Amino acid sequence: MRLVDLGQTQNLWVVSDVHMRTPDDARTRAFCEFLDSVSGCDSLVLLGDIFDFINARQHFYFRHWREVFARLRRLRERGVRVVFVEGNHDYGFDHSPCREIRECFDECGDSVVRVTHPGIGQLLLLHSDDVVCPPSYRTFRALVKSNSFQTLLSPVPGIATSYLFSRYAQMSRSKDKYRELSSEFLTRCVDSFLESQRHAPADSLAMCIFGHIHVYLDDNRKNVRFLSGPDWFTAPNVLRIGEGGKVERSWLNAELQVPTQFYFERQR
Predict the structure, then answer these.
(1) Which residue, 64, 82, 179, 229, has most beta carbons within 10 Å?
(2) What is the Cα–Cα distance from 236 to 228, expressed in whole angstroms?
């Protein structure tokens, strides 16, 4: 997993875990409407699992999701820096031969994003699947994200990979344990993450933003503020960090707003 350093940003927007399944479902339409409405930000980070499955090595997926990619490209043309961080449902961006997909992003791939905000300090943004999952999963993750595996997968027709992996994702989610994550478990995961952090040592890190865990999180651990949001399909939302360091989460449908939940033991 490589480090992408974006330098400074004044107005950062973050979205994660949309899990779009088909180009014409309600979730995809809502996400496209959101992209059309983006204004006032200089950097938009898509923090993984934007698609329920995509293999950017195959041109099929550009054609399949052409309306989404068209909107992302228009954002770049308007001067918004667009960064795509792969999740555990997004594949192949690091090695994609599809020029049309790469042209939609300033940066894309399996990465950790570092950025500096003048009102906050240094921030890290990551999908975080390797933070909350066991070592055996990390080995599997490294394999399926590798160029070798993606090369082997490329000859398989895109319509087949789309069907098979999307079905697998739905089956896996039916056994989802995210809602059962305890404060104690997440605290251990975050402590381990801070101890092993090489991209930004804990003494220089002000904020860390997670995707993947599908729970609402806003708390401090060892002087670092950790943020995560509910998945898009539970409550469509965007995290905004504006000038002066103001942090706010905007709910795109007030009726679906989830109650605030804290998952860390409070240790200030």
Answers:
(1) 229
(2) 13
- Rounded to an integer, what is the distance from CA 103 to the centroid of its chain? 19
Report how far residue 105's alpha carbon sits from residue 120's, in angstroms, rounded to the nearest whole number: 25
CB 107 within 8 A of CB 84: yes
> With bands split at pLDDT 50, 70 and 90, how would you rate the model's confidence at 167?
confident
* Residue 38 in this model has a pLDDT that exceeds 80: yes
3-class DSSP assignment, residue 106: coil
> Is residue 261 within 8 Å of 55, Cβ to Cβ?
no
Q: Measured between alpha carbons, how far is 212 from 178 in angstroms, rounded to an integer?
A: 9
Q: Note the pLDDT of residue 255.
A: 57
How many helices (DSSP H) and strands (DSSP E) are in the chain?
A: 9, 14
C-alpha span between 237 and 245 (Å, rounded): 19
